[in-house]
Each structure stands twice: as structure tokens, then as C-alpha cells.
Amino acid sequence: MNKIVIIIKREYLTRVRNKTFLLSTFLLPLVMMVFIFGSAYLGAKSIKQYKIAVKDETGLYKNKLKNSDAAFYGYPENVNMSNYRKDGYDGLLLVYSKDNTNADSARLYSEKELGLATDEAIKKQLQKINEERLLLAKGVSRAILDSIHAQSEDEDLLNYRSYKVSGAELKEGNKKLSSIVGFISGIIIYITLFIYGASVMRGVMEEKTNRIAEVMVSSVKPFQLMLGKIIGIAAVGLTQLLLWIILIGLLMNILPLIMSPEMMQQAQNGQAIPGGAAQSSSVANMIAQSTGVDIAGANWPLIIGCFLFYFLGGYLFYASLFAAVGSVINEDPQEAQSLMLPITMPIIFGFIMLTSTIQNPSGPLAFWGSIIPFTSPIVMMGRIPSGVPESVPYWQLGLSMVLLIAGFFFTTWLSAKIYRTGILMYGKKASWKEMIKWAIKKA
Fold first, then answer.
1. What residues form the membrane-spanning segments (predicted)?
2. pLDDT the model gives residue 412
3. Domains in the chain, number
4. Of 280, 289, 296, which Cα lies nearest the Cα of 41?
5. Strand partners, 8
6. What range defines the domain where residue 263 resides?
7. Are 234 and 361 contained in the same domain?
């Protein structure tokens, strides 16, 4: 046991003292928060109002197009394709009627792309005017139309909300938040399985190539060497994740103090924060107002706890397999790629299943993907943000965790048999068929 602890300590300290680890640990949360705040701030400022010259050959749209943040309309005389730029306009909107048809046609001309916001604003205004014209033709009076428009601008005609029912308790649903959290959690685990799994394989390959493994195996058992390396790198990954969670939490409270009231106001898309003072939920409010996602509505303790479990469980499940592959490789990159394929395919398949899982977290594909240990670390994290036990019953969550732990013990046992033979084998290429024979023979 002491020998395993020594190996764990060596693997852990060697990596956490590395400059790359320190930079990625402390800079990534800062970059992430700057990206979130910067995107919200720049997104609010990026909408530009373009001047649009309108040439209406039908006479039905003149002076009826309402200005918006994306488009300002003018109706100059004798405007055409050759002179609209001289009057300071950015684009020309030509409206005309086709021969032998009842439909009008509209064409927007500009020297540069005016953007989706401007395009949608113009299209929406034209459709609204056409709707009014059709209603008037059907006998609806102008007074009634004006009353409807005034009412729709002053209040929401339909206040739609979705709720999750849990016994006598009602919880407001937040599908957008659960989708975002589920996708981000799944993709982080997907990436870390490759990064830390490859780190284990690379470490085993280096020790074998440099003949360090021969010296170490003379003092410790191959299983102890493999287990110490796996747990040591797992501790590195867990340390990094915990530091990221702590640093992001601190930055979410510090950044509002640093940002000026004007920046906060822009980031909230016009919603002011009195005096620029930072409240405990100011960041949550800003994100909710600028993106429509209420991050305060999630069960964060459960999500973070399950994320750490599935990150660690998924890593331990796959790390032993990566270690087994690393033990039989002899400096040939192509050999490494061919042997890694059976390990990486289930990880990729789990990521492919993630999108369908987020869309239907209670479906059969989501259920089986979250139960089978090969895909459960990624797929289950796509389901959990949708609600426990609403979308994920407790028995499914418990079964998934138990099977993942059992899968870890099985893959570790299997990989140890392969590792014991492969780590001391040189100059011979091994296949998965041969590696499985080693495991059965040694068993």
C-alpha cells in the first residue's frame, strides 16, 4: 500500500508543478469569465442601425415602416440603384408588384452585408403591413386595428410558462438552462476523458521506452504501478476541476465590482444596475437579462456533485484501458492509433448520443446511454440538469453509478492482466486479440 501511495505522490506532484498545469488552471477560468462578459457586452453594442432608402412602386408601404434599433427608413424622391448612396443611405428597399399576380415583391440592395438583425427587422415590418392590409380588406376597421396594436405594445397578450410537477410542489421549468448545462457538462467530460486518458497512456509509453518501467517493476508489482499512475493523474484532474469551480465562483462575485456601471448596463442590454453596486445575484441577473437563461434556477449542488462523480468515474473506467494500450506500444504512432480505436469509439458514440439525450432526457436512448458504463459519464450529465427525480428517477441514477463503479473494477482487473505482460515486452506488436488472450490466460 505504501508503494502505491509513493507512486501516486510522484505522479501528482510531477504534474501539478508543471507550468502548463498552473497556467491552464488559473488562466482558463479568467478567460472563460472575460469571454462571457465580453460576449454579452459586445453583443449588446454590435447591433447597428442602418439607413434604408425605400422606393415603393405600389404606394402601400410609404411612411408605414416603423424605425427600429436595426433599421431607419427614409423615402427620398427619385431614388434608384445608382444614387441611393449619395444621400447617405446604406441600402435600397425596392417594393413592386409583379404582373398578373396579387403578391408584392420586396428586394433589398446594398454594397455590403447589413446583417441578419436588419434583414429580419425589414421583413417583419413588411409582413405586418401586409397583415393589416388583408384585415382591412376583410372588413376590420382601422380603429380596431389601432386598438389591437396599442394593446399588444403595452402588455403581453399571452404569458407562457412551463412547470415541473413534483407531488404538490410546482417548479418553473427552464429548458434552455438544462440544455446548456447538460451539453457543457457532457462535452467537458468528453474532452477530459481523451486528455487525461491519453496522459496515462503517454506516461506508460514514456516509462516503457526509457526502460524506467523495468527498474520500477523490480521494486513494485505491475498492478501497483498502473494503479498508482491512474489514481495520481485522477487526483490531478480532480484538483484542476475543483480549483476551476472555486475560481469561477470568486470571479463571478469580483468582476461586477471591477466593471463600470456603463459596462454592466451594456452587458444587460439596457437594464441598469443602480450605482453599479454588486449584489450576490448580479451576475446571474445580468446573464438572465442578456441571454434569457436563469442560472439561479438550477440545482447546482446536485449538478456539481454528479459532475465530479461522473468525471472521476468515467476517467477511472477508461484510464486503465488506456494504460493497458500504452503498455504494449513500442514507439509507433500508427500502432497506438489502431489500438486506441476500440476505446475511443464508445466515448465518441456517447457524445453523439448527447444531443438526442438533451432533446428527450426521458427517452429510451437516453436511458440506456446513461446506464451502460461506456457512455454513462457523458449521457447521464445530459439528463441530470433536466431534473432529479423528474427526468432521472433516483433508481436510474443509483443504478448508473453502481454499474460505473463495477465497470471500473472490471476494466482495472482486465487491464492489470494485460499491463503485467505488456510493460516488459519489447520489439513485438500486439493486437487486441492477443491482449485478451493474456488476460484470460493470466486469469
1. 20-42, 180-198, 230-255, 300-319, 339-358, 365-382, 394-416
2. 86
3. 2
4. 289
5. none
6. 2-42+175-442
7. yes
CA separation for the pair 17, 23 (Å, rounded): 11
- Same domain for 356 and 372? yes
Q: Could you identify the residue written with the cell 471500473? A: 408
Report the range out of 83-87, 101-105, 174-178, 421-425 with the highest average pLDDT. 83-87
Whether residue 284 is found in the same domain as residue 357 = yes
pLDDT in tens, 143-182: 887 777 776 665 556 666 666 666 666 666 667 778 888 8
In a domain, 68, yes or no: yes
**Alpha carbon distance 390, 294 (integer Å):** 19
211 and 329 in a single domain? The answer is yes
Inter-axis angle of helices 222-258 and 2-16, nearest 10: 40
- We report the CATH number of the domain holding residue 91 as 3.40.190.10
Q: Is residue 308 part of a domain?
A: yes
36-50, 251-265, 327-341: which range is least confident on average? 251-265
**Helix pair angle (222-258, 300-328), 10° resolution:** 140
Last residue of a domain, one of 99, 130, 148: 148
Pairing of strands 50-56, 91-97: parallel
Residue with cell 447589413: 114
Whether residue 143 is found in the same domain as residue 228? no
Q: CA–CA separation, 204 vs 321, rounded Å? A: 12
For the chain, what percentages of helix, strand and coil (3-state, to nearest 5) are there? 65, 5, 25
- Is residue 160, in this structure, part of any structural domain at all? no
pLDDT above 80 (res 365): yes
Percent with pLDDT over 70 in the chain:
78
Q: Indicate the DSSP class of residue 59.
A: S
Q: How many other CB atoms sit within 10 Å of the CB of residue 300?
A: 15
Per the CB < 8 A criterion, the answer to whether 409 and 415 are in contact is no
Per-residue pLDDT reduced to its tens digit, 203-235: 888 777 777 776 777 778 877 888 888 888 889
Average pLDDT, integer, range 238-262: 75
User: Read out DSSP for 207-257?
Assistant: HHHTTHHHHHHTTS-HHHHHHHHHHHHHHHHHHHHHHHHHHHHHHHHHHHH
Dist CA 70 CA 118 (whole Å): 5
Sequence-distant (6+) residues with CB within 8 A of 133 are: 60
Asked if 239 and 314 sit in the same domain, the reply is yes
Which of 71-85, 264-278, 291-305, 408-422 is predicted least confidently? 264-278
